[in-house]
């Protein structure tokens, strides 16, 4: 919305009987409703580990590394979360600075970031020692992640891991300011709920933003998105014990820890950091321009057109 609103006038509604240029949806929660938008270009978008069904949707934005011409754009959830991070640091007291030519700089800055994030500001500004922080943090609300829960238990058996969410909570309350909480620890356990190639959410970004080292498990191809020298990738190890031994090594060897902490989170080419597949605002805008300028509605077929919308959906990929 932020990108498109810079170039188009946008009107939002949820009425399938009103004319629309685009309709967004995903199988979870809106699979049946999307069928009622028959003469509009449907765009799949999800924050979950789901693969788009191009029989239902004309275009898709997702995590998977698919090549489907101009009908698909890979934009992992972590990239969308950067939008909110950028908005939050458009602040005169933030330790991260927005470029003068950024779209985010067009808005009047706020003045409360440091007040709300004193520990984060101190550690980013080198006003406090990043080595003199707690061991590791953990924030999760979904208990249905057995691998994540098992790793927490294994790591916590070596050194106490502070839990600030509803899962494995050790504080007695849920933290309200995740970034500030994470910044008070050397590591952040940021496992995805499920594993899938390309499925990288905001969790690793939350750790980077808080100037703590991510201990990550999830997408086996995450090193394409982020510099493998900047985080602990549990998928690189044969088992939990090996991964935990490496975390313990970093914890007890200050130089090794600091080397990883100060690595650029992004991969670089010729000294210049870049997002995987050159993802950018321009690439996203070009994707939507192509959609808006193309009159083809790909989902037009008898199965979709004439289906009884009251009939139970048997299966949707």
Automatic annotation (TrEMBL):
<protein>
    <recommendedName>
        <fullName>Alpha-(1,3)-fucosyltransferase FucT N-terminal domain-containing protein</fullName>
    </recommendedName>
</protein>
<dbReference type="InterPro" id="IPR001503">
    <property type="entry name" value="Glyco_trans_10"/>
</dbReference>
<dbReference type="InterPro" id="IPR055270">
    <property type="entry name" value="Glyco_tran_10_C"/>
</dbReference>
<feature type="domain" description="Alpha-(1,3)-fucosyltransferase FucT N-terminal">
    <location>
        <begin position="3"/>
        <end position="79"/>
    </location>
</feature>
<dbReference type="Pfam" id="PF18025">
    <property type="entry name" value="FucT_N"/>
</dbReference>
<keyword id="KW-0328">Glycosyltransferase</keyword>
<dbReference type="Pfam" id="PF00852">
    <property type="entry name" value="Glyco_transf_10"/>
</dbReference>
<comment type="similarity">
    <text>Belongs to the glycosyltransferase 10 family.</text>
</comment>
<dbReference type="InterPro" id="IPR038577">
    <property type="entry name" value="GT10-like_C_sf"/>
</dbReference>
<dbReference type="GO" id="GO:0016020">
    <property type="term" value="C:membrane"/>
</dbReference>
<dbReference type="GO" id="GO:0008417">
    <property type="term" value="F:fucosyltransferase activity"/>
</dbReference>
<feature type="domain" description="Fucosyltransferase C-terminal">
    <location>
        <begin position="135"/>
        <end position="259"/>
    </location>
</feature>
<keyword id="KW-0808">Transferase</keyword>
<dbReference type="InterPro" id="IPR041058">
    <property type="entry name" value="FucT_N"/>
</dbReference>
């Amino acid at each position: 919305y932020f990108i498109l609103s810079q170039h188009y006038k946008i009107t939002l509604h949820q009425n399938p009987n009103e004319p629309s240029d685009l309709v967004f949806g995903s199988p979870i929660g809106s699979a049946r409703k999307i069928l009622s938008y028959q003469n509009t270009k449907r765009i799949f978008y999800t924050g979950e580990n789901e693969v788009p069904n191009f029989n239902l949707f004309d275009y898709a934005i997702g995590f998977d590394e698919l090549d489907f011409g101009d009908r698909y754009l890979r934009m992992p959830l972590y990239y969308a979360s950067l939008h909110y991070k950028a908005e939050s640091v458009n602040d005169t007291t933030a330790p991260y600075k927005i470029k003068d030519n950024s779209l985010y700089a067009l808005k009047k800055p706020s003045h409360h970031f440091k007040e709300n994030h004193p520990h984060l500001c101190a550690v980013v500004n080198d006003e406090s020692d990043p080595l003199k922080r707690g061991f590791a943090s953990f924030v999760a609300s979904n208990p249905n992640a057995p691998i994540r829960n098992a790793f927490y238990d294994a790591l916590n058996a070596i050194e106490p891991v502070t839990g600030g969410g509803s899962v494995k909570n050790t504080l007695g309350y849920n933290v309200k300011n995740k970034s500030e909480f994470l910044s008070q620890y050397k590591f952040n356990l940021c496992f995805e709920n499920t594993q899938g190639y390309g499925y990288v959410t905001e969790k690793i970004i939350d750790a980077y933003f808080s100037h703590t080292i991510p201990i990550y498990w999830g997408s086996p191809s995450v090193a394409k998105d982020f510099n493998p020298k900047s985080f602990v990738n549990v998928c690189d190890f044969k088992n939990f014990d090996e991964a935990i031994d490496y975390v313990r090594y970093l914890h007890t060897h200050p130089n090794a820890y600091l080397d990883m902490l100060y690595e650029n989170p992004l991969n670089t080419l010729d000294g210049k950091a870049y997002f995987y597949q050159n993802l950018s605002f321009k690439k996203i805008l070009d994707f939507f321009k192509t959609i808006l300028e193309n009159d083809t509605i790909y989902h037009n077929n008898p199965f979709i057109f004439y289906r009884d919308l009251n009939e139970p959906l048997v299966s949707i990929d």
